[in-house]
Amino acid sequence: MRSKSKAVMIRCGVGFLRVMLAGAYRIKAWASPASGVTRILVGRGTYDRFMVNTDENQAPFQYIAKAQPAIDMEVDTHIYAPLASTGWHKHPGPVYITVTSGELTFYEYDDPTCSPHVYKAGEGFVDYGNGHIGINHDPNKSASDVTVAITYVGGPFRTELPAPGPYCSF
User: Fold this and answer.
1) Which residues pair with 148 in a beta bridge?
2) CA-CA to 80 of 20 to 30 Å: which in 35, 46, 117, 118?
3) How high is the mean pLDDT of the chain?
4) Could you tell me the residue ranges of all domains in the chain?
5) What pLDDT, on the 0 to 100 scale, is given for residue 5?
6) Runs of H (alpha helix) within the chain
């Protein structure tokens, strides 16, 4: 009798593991990894806590940045092949993105209108970490960008998001 209940428990355990593994595979399959984008790490560094505030007497603009506690910054170059995509993803902190060649289109993950934001070489924007996808819509020319991403010390710089996005069909 004990051997029968032990066998039933083992079968139940194996069945449970199969269900969990299938679920994990399905979640991974829903993620949208980058396609046709080559990432080149320029460097990653740890910065002690700091506070930066430009002096109005020195510069004709104001810039304020504060890190508390220490943070990591990573600088990357991304080369986008024609029709390449970053896949839907998010970052734990802000990312400064500068398009260095070609033209790239970004869509915000939480934008109910799925509006395209197009940037040409020399233009940039700050991604605040809510999630996005970057696409090179040009079928003939590559494009590139440089990013400065911020995270906690030792933290990841990218987390995959399910695809398609909640408001975009891709």
Assistant:
1) 75, 96
2) 46
3) 86
4) 1-30, 33-160
5) 54
6) 2-30
Residue 13 has pLDDT above 80, yes or no: no
Cα 88 from Cα 130, distance rounded (Å): 11
Residue 28 to residue 32: CA distance in whole angstroms: 9
According to the 3-state scheme, what is the secondary structure of 38-71? Answer: EEEEEEEEEECCEEEECCCCCCCCCCEEEECCCE
The answer to whether residues 141 and 82 touch, using CB atoms and an 8 Å cutoff, is yes
What tokens were used for 116? 């395209």
Q: Which tens digit of pLDDT belongs to each residue from 99-114? A: 999 999 999 999 999 9
Contact between residue 151 and residue 93 where contact means Cβ atoms under 8 Å apart: yes
Backbone angles phi, psi at 54, to 5 degrees: -60, 145
Q: How many helices (H) and strands (E) does the chain have?
A: 1, 12
By the 8 A CB rule, do 109 and 170 touch?
no
pLDDT band of 4, cuts 50, 70, 90: low
φ, ψ dihedrals at 22, nearest 5°: -65, -40
